[in-house]
Structure of Ig-like domain-containing protein:
Amino acid sequence: MSNRVILWVACAVFVLSGVGAQLQAEGSLAFLVPVQAGRSQVESPLKSSEPLTLWCQIRDRRRGSDVAKIKEAHFTRTVAGKQTKVDDVGVDLHGGRNASLTFEDLDVAKAGRYTCHITAENGQNVNGNIEVYARPVLLANGYSVKYIEKEDDPFHLEASSHTLTEGTDLETFTCHVIGYPKPTIKWTFNAGALPESAKTSDDGETLTIENIEKQHQGTYTCTASNEFKIDSKPFSNKLVIDRQLNVKHWLSFLIPLGIIIILLLLLGIVISLCECRRKKNEQQLLEPATEE
């Protein structure tokens, strides 16, 4: 599936009451943020590989759907149910013909619903929504866990393995992903069902395993997915993250400990032999030579 989808269609129609005027807002309706990797970093966010331009304009149906001149326009992004004004990028009015907002490198975390708010020259307002979609991407925090692409697929990641000792009370794996619409998350164990002692959080981002035993050893997989339509064309996206859990016996430390003890004993023997040899040589030097 291509990651480069840029499409616009009629955005919305708003009928203004009072004077019988009818204004139609139109412009870019939906975008898919183009990305070339499946992992973003809090310290170094993943950004779009190409510029994105959102735009809108007004048509006045009373005048044969002529483009009406814009007096003022601004864009907002819906965050946690609230509209927040986009003020880090300037709006270009193009002489009042349309309003556009260009992101040279949009942070994938800022995908979501944008709204174009337009004020016509007569003071009347219209607005329309623009959906900026993003496929699921891992948002990593810190560098304690390493990730590599599996089979050269940027959206199939393998996390560094983790080793625990049998009897460990609790272990937690996280799968913090971002995208728009919000991705759904599913966990599997060795491509099958999770062990009974493994539970997921309500949002699916956290997997907790209790009372670690040898049977818990294997590959835990987080699959994040979202779906949307652009111009009636369905898009289905997935991000897969594998992590290997190794479980060692609680007495496994005795093997390296035994090796260390043996090495220390051998070292002690060597040192003792060397010391005895040194003393013997010194004694021979101190003994007087025997006269014939």
